[in-house]
Amino acid sequence: MLFLFLLGCSRRSATRCSFQRPPPSLLAAASSSCRLSTASTQCPPVTLAVLAGHPHPDVAQFPHTGFSHLADQPLLARSIHGLALRLALPLSSFHCNTLIAFYFRRQNAPAAALHLFDAMPDRTTSSWYTAVSGCVRCGHDATAFHLLRGMRERHVPLSGFALASLVTACERRGWDEGRACGAAIHGLTHRAGLMGNVYIGTALLHLYGSRGMVSDAQRLFCEMPERNVVSWTALMVALSSNGYQEEALGAYLHMRREGIICNANAFATVLSLCGSLDDEMPGLQVASHVIVSGLRNHVSVANSLITMFGSMGRVQDAEKLFAQMEERDTISWNAMISLYSHEGICSRCFLLFSDMRHGGLRPDATTLCSLMSVCSSSHYFRHGSGVHSLCLRRGLHSSITVTNALVNMYSSAGKLSDAEFLFWNMNEQKGSNFMEHYDFILRAECALGACSTPESLMYGRMVHAMILQSSLHKHLLVGNSLLTMYGKCNSMQDAEKVFQLMPTYDAVSYNVLIGGYAGLEDGRKTMQVFSSMRGAGIKPNYITMINTQGSFTSLNELHNYGMPLHAYIIHAGFLSDEYVANSLITMYAKCGDLESSTNIFHSITNKSVVSWNAMIAANAQLGHGEQALKLFMDMRHAGNKLDHVCLAECLSSSASLASLEEGMQLQCLGVKCGLDPDTYVVNAAMDMYVKCGKMDEMLKMLPDQAIRPKQCWNTLISGYARYGYFKEAEGTFKQMISMGRKPDYVTFVALLSACSHAGLVDKGIDYYNSMASMFGVSPGIKHCVCIVDLLGRLGRFSEAEKFIEEMPVLPNDLIWRSLLSSSRTHKNLEIGRKAAKKLLELDPFDDSAYVLLSNLYATHARWVDVDKLRSHMKTINLTKRPACSWLKQKNEVRTFGIGDRGHKHAEKIYAKLDEILMKLREVGYITDTSSALHDTDEEQKGQNLWSHSEKLALAYGLIVVPEGPTVRIFKNLRVCSDCHLVFKLVSMVFNREIVLRDPYRFHHFKELQVKRGGSISLDNGGPGIQWSLSEHTSAAETSAAAVTVRNITGSEFDHSLSGWPVPVLILVQLVVALTS
After folding, report:
1. CA 1071 – CA 227 distance, rounded (Å)
2. DSSP assignment, residue 456?
3. If DSSP codes are grouped into helix, strand and coil, which group holds residue 47?
4. Residue 607's closest CA among 630, 588, 631, 590?
5. At what angle do helices 264-274 and 229-240 cross, to 10 degrees?
6. Cα 447 from Cα 459, distance rounded (Å)
C-alpha cells in the first residue's frame, strides 16, 4: 500500500510540475535530495507536507520527526528516501541530519552517510556532530578525527556530545596513543569551556580508568561541576578495575550521601566490586539497598547479586534469589552453574544445566567452560564427552576459550592423548593441520598453566617439546609461560635453560625467574638474577621488589642482601608502595629482625588490613604471641575489619602461647563474623586445639571425610604426630589415600615427623622413598630434616651423613641443627663439631649452634672449650635465649625462669619443691646430672637442675590446680631428661594428670591404677608411647621397676626385667596389647 501511495503521488506530481531529474547514481541522487530544489516556477513546489495525510502513522509523522523514529523500520525509511529522490523533494537540514544518522546505524552503509554529509551545501553544527559520532560508532576513528580537524578549521563550535564520542575512539587505540589522545581532548575540552558537560566528563573517566590513570580520573571527577549516576558509576569502575576496591566502595557511599539515586548499572558495578572484598558486610549492605530501591528483579542487578553471593560462599542466598527471579537470561544460569562449580557441588551443576536447556535458553561458551571445569574431576569425567559433543553441535569448539577448557579437562582427568589431539588438531582451517599462530600460543600458555605443579612436571616437559617442534619457543609470551611452569614445578635448572635460550626478555621474564628462586628461598640466586636484570637495563617494578624480598630467611642473608635491597627500594621510590612496605615487614620478620619490622610498620601512615596482618604474623611467627594479640586489639580499635588471614594468625598466636581461652574466644569471633567456614580459619582453630592439649576438641571440628579438605587431613596427621600417636597418624594417612585425596608436601612432613617421634627408621625411609615414585611429591628440605632427625635419634650418624650428601636439596640450618642436637644426645663430639661448623657458616650469629656445641662439650667435661665458646658469644654480643615456663590459671598467666624467686608465692613454691623431691627420693629417684652443663660438683649440679623453670611451674601447678583437672605447663625450650623423669614420677606419686608442652611435642603423663596396689604412669612424650610400671612395695623395687615401652606397634621394648615375677611381665604385655 505504501509503495502504491508513493507511486500515485509521484504520478500526480509529474503531471503538475516538471523537475530536473537527479543523476542516476544512488549516492549522487541522494546528495541532490539534500539540496534545495530548483523546480520550474510554473508549478508550486511539492514539499514533504504531502506526506502529512498518509494513513500510515509513521509516514504521517515523518515531516515533523524525520528519519530518527524509523530506525527500527529500515524498509519504510528507504522508501521515503527513495520518494524524495524520485520527486526531488527538498530535505531540510533537520531531515538530512536524521537521514545521515539513519545510514550510520545501518550495517555497511557508513559510506552513504558520509556522501550525504559531503553533499550538504549548508551543514549545521548538528550535521558535524552527527557525522563525528556516526564515524566513531562504525569504527571509522581516523575519519572522525579528520572531521574534528575540519570543525576546528571552519570554527564550528564544539559540543560535549561530539567530544565524548571521540574519547570513545581513544579507548580503542593503543595504550600510549590512547592516553595521549585522551589528554589532548581533555585539554581541548578545557579551552572550549565544556568541562561542565557531564557526558564528556564521564567519557574521560572511562578512558582514564581503562588506562590505569586512577589519580587523573579522581582529579577529573573532583573538577566536574555536574555529576550524575553515570559519572559516579564511571568513577567506581575506574577505581575497582585498578584494584582500589575500598576506594570504589567509598565512592558509592559518597554518592548515596549526596542523594544520587542508583540505577541498575550502578548497583551491578558496586555489587561486582563487593564480591572481591574479603569482608562480607559491605556486600550485604548494598544488597539491602537494592531491595529498598526495588531493582532486585532487574536481570543485571540480580545476576550481580548471585555472583557476589557466590564469591562469598553464600550458596543458599544465591539459590533463593535465583528462584525468585521473574526473568532470567543466560548470564543468570551461568552465574549459578559457576557458583556450584566453584563450591564443588558438581551434581547440581548438571541439574541446573538441564533446567536451563528445558527453559529454551542456549548454553554459551561460559556455560560449557564451567561444566568442563566440573568434569575435570574423576567422579564426573563421564559427562565430559557429552559436554564436548554439545560444543561441536553448537559450533563453539572453534572458540579459543572453549578449546583451552577442553584441553584442561582432558589433561586434568589424565586423558593426555585426547588433550594432545585437541591441542594439535582443533580449529583447523580448510583441512589444514596448521593452527593460527596466535591461537597456538594461547593454547600453549593454557596447557603450561595446567602443568604448573611439581607432580605434573613431566607433562609440562611434553608441552615444551611440542612448542620446540612448532618453533615458537623464541616467542616472548611462550618463553615467559615456560619460565612460570618450571618455576612453579621447582625445576629451576630447566627454567635457567629456557631463560638462556630466550632471544628477548622483559620485566615479566626476570620477575618469574626471581619468583622461582624466592619460592625455594635461595637468596643468593635471587640477587644474582636481580643484578642481571638491572645490568640488562630493564627497570624493576614493585613485583620485582616483593619477590626478591621473599627469598631471604636468615640474618646473614638479611645483612648481605636484604638491607642493601631496602636501600635500593628507598632510592628508587618504591617505599611509598603499600605492597612493598608490607613485604619489607615480612622480610625482616622472616630473618628474625622484629625491631626493624616494627619500625617499618610504624612508618606507614595509612595502615591497611594487609599491613596489620603482616605485623601480627611477624610477631606470631617469631614467638611473640602476646604482642600479636595486642596488635590484633589495636587493629580492631582502629576500625579495621577482621579477615580470615588475621584471624588465622591470631589463632596461631594463641596456639604458640597455649592460651586456650583466647583461642576459643577468637573462634567465637570468627563465627560471629561469618569466617568460621573458611578453610584457613578451620585449620588454624584445629591446630590451636592440638597445641593447647585439647585433641578431643580438635576431633570435634573435623569435617566429614567426604568433604574434608586436604589441609584438615594434614592437620590431623600432624596432631597425631605431635602427640606421638604413630598408628593413628599412619591410619589417617591411609584413610586419606583411600578417600581419593592426594597427599602433598605438608602431608609427608607430618607423616615423617610421626615416624621420627616413634623412632621407626625403616618406615620413615620407605615413606620418603615413595613420595616421588608413588605420589609425585618432590622431597623438600623439611622432609630431609625429618629423615636426618630420625637417623640422629637412633645414633646412626654415618647413614645421616651419607643421606645429607645425597639430598636432592642443599642442606640448610635445620639440617645441621638437627644433626648437632642428636650428636649432643649421643655424645658424638666429632659429628657435633662438624655440624656446628656448617651451621655457623650459614649464620655466624646463630645462638643455638653455640649453645648446643657448648652442651656437647659439657657432656665430655671439656670445660675449657665451654668457657671459650661462652667468651666468644660475649665478644660478638650474642646471648642465649633464656628458658621460660608458664601455666595459666583462670585469667592469669604465671611465668617462671631458671631459679626464679620473684614470684609472690616463691616460699610456697620452693617448699613444694622440697616436698616433691623428698617423696620422689622415697620411690628411688636419683638426679640425672647428665643434663647439668656447668663445671660444678654433683650436689651443685642437682641443685641447679631443681631450679629449672618447668619444675618451678610444676610445683606452682600442684599448689593452685585442684585435684581432678589436668595440670598444663608450657616451655619455650626442649625439656631436659631429668625434668622429664621428674614429671613422670610426680604423675605417679601424686596421682595427677600432667601435660607438658615444649616446642617439639606434647608430653602427656597420666596415672592408671591397677590391682594389688600397683600403678602405671602413662607418658606419650618420648619416642612412641612410654610406660612406667611400679609396684609400691619398696623404694628399691620401685626404682628397679621402671619399664620403657618404645612404641605401640608390637616391636620389642627396651627395659631390664631381670628378677621380675611372671605376673608383672604378663601385666606389661597386657598393657602394651591394649594400647596397640
Report:
1. 82
2. G
3. coil
4. 631
5. 20
6. 9
Say which residues have a Cβ less than 8 Å from residue 508's Cβ, sequence separation at least 6: 480
1005 - beta bridge partners? 994, 1019
| pLDDT higher than 60, residue 715 | yes
DSSP class of residue 559 equals: I
Q: How far apart are CA 714 and CA 702, in angstroms?
A: 11
What residues are paired with 892 via a beta bridge? Answer: 889
CA distances from 963 to 391, 885, 991, 1003 (A): 71, 21, 9, 19
Q: Tell me the C-alpha distance between 272 and 775, whole Å.
A: 40
Q: List, in order, residues 6 or more apart from 808 with CB less than 8 Å away.
A: 778, 779, 784
Contact between 117 and 35 (Cβ < 8 Å):
no
Query: What strands, in cross-sheet order, belong to the sheet with 885-889?
Result: 892-896, 885-889, 967-971, 994-997, 1002-1009, 1014-1019, 1026-1031
Q: Please, how many CA atoms are within 13 Å of residue 323, restricted to the half-sphere of its CB? A: 6
CA–CA separation, 716 vs 702, rounded Å?
A: 8
In angstroms, the CA 107 to CA 1005 distance is 86
What DSSP element (H or E) covers 501?
helix 492-501
- Across 826-845, b (16+ Cβ under 10 Å) vs e yields bebbebbbbbbebbbebbeb
Least confident of 397-406, 444-453, 916-925, 931-940: 931-940
Q: Identify the burial level of 865 via C-beta atoms within 10 angstroms of its C-beta, where 0-12 means exposed, 13-18 middle and 19 or more buried.
A: middle
Which cell numbers in the block locate residue 686? 584445629
Distance, CA of 628 to CA of 623 (rounded, Å): 9
Q: How far is Cα of residue 810 from the mean position of the Cα atoms in its chain?
A: 28
Amino acid at 148: L
**Rounded distance, CA 548 to CA 558, Å?**
12
Q: pLDDT tens-digit profile of 19-72?
A: 232 333 434 444 444 543 333 344 455 566 667 777 788 777 777 777 777 777
User: Can you give the pLDDT at residue 343?
Assistant: 73
Spatial contact of 963 and 957, defined as CB atoms under 8 Å apart: no
Burial of 194 (0-12, 13-18, 19+ CB in 10 A): buried
E strand or H helix at 1028:
strand 1026-1031
